[in-house]
Amino acid sequence: MLQSVIEIVKHVAEVEVMPRYLKVAHSRKADGSLCTEADLACQVALVRELTGLAPYPVLGEEMPESEQRMLWMAGSDGLWCIDPIDGTSNFVNGVPYFAVSVALMKAGRSVMGVIYDPVADEMFYAEKGQGAFLNGERLPIKTRSPDLRHSLAGVELKRISDAIATQVALHPPYSSQRNFGASTLDWCYTAAGRFDVYLHGGQKLWDYAAGCLIMEEAGGQMCTLACDDFWADDLWERPVVAALGVDLFAEWKAWIRAADK
């Protein structure tokens, strides 16, 4: 099934997303985030293709919250969780950092994840217990984890607490940081070793469903601000603290939790 999902995601991106790149108007949703015709067309196509592959409910970002919650409750035996375009602001403004994300979840946990960057033609994917890959190459690509002070960090600043933001601004524990604006790809970059550590103050289910499995299958470690078990925190708004190396992760987690006081 994994190969079929990869083919579906790549085809939908080629047909529904990239022909509209830099060519569509956008509107704002109630939460202030952007939505385009490409988001909606991609979601419709993914729903059609994925349910044809396996008839599970499909929970997508561009659905009303009430429908999302209903689909979650109905999908314990199997649920497709999709983000048709993660990084819509980048997509609208011509920043080449956005992705199509699909996860298959069972019993509330991800068992398959596929994230595709159509600009770079990079397909990240994982299946539970089978490892994580980028275009056929096993992740991570960079396997040496530095100590924290020499790390490159992926940090989403706008959703972290004031306490952490102050410490990050005044006393960053790492060498340098990046924030490119697409959570699904941030997971993949960390899993690949492009980022050494990762911090996000609050992700939606479709932001982390595929990425956290790819990270886990690459050998990465993750938790939230409050819970060592990443899956024990709030389903709909989940912070992320992650790193590849065990020692680096322990150092990063300790620094973040000490800063968040």
How would you characterize this protein structure?
This protein is an alpha+beta fold and 261 residues long. It is 36% helix and 26% strand. The protein has a 7-stranded mixed β-sheet, sandwiched between helices. Helix 3 links the parallel strand 3 (58-60) and strand 4 (79-86). The model has no long low-confidence stretch (mean pLDDT 93).
Structural class: alpha+beta
Radius of gyration: 17 Å
Average predicted local confidence, pLDDT:
93
Note the quaternary state here. Answer: single chain
End-to-end Cα distance: 45 Å
Helix content percent band: 25-40%
Count, helices: 8
User: What spatial order of strands do you see in the largest sheet?
Assistant: 3-4-5-6-7-8-9
Structural key phrases:
7-stranded mixed sheet, 26% strand, alpha+beta, 14 strands
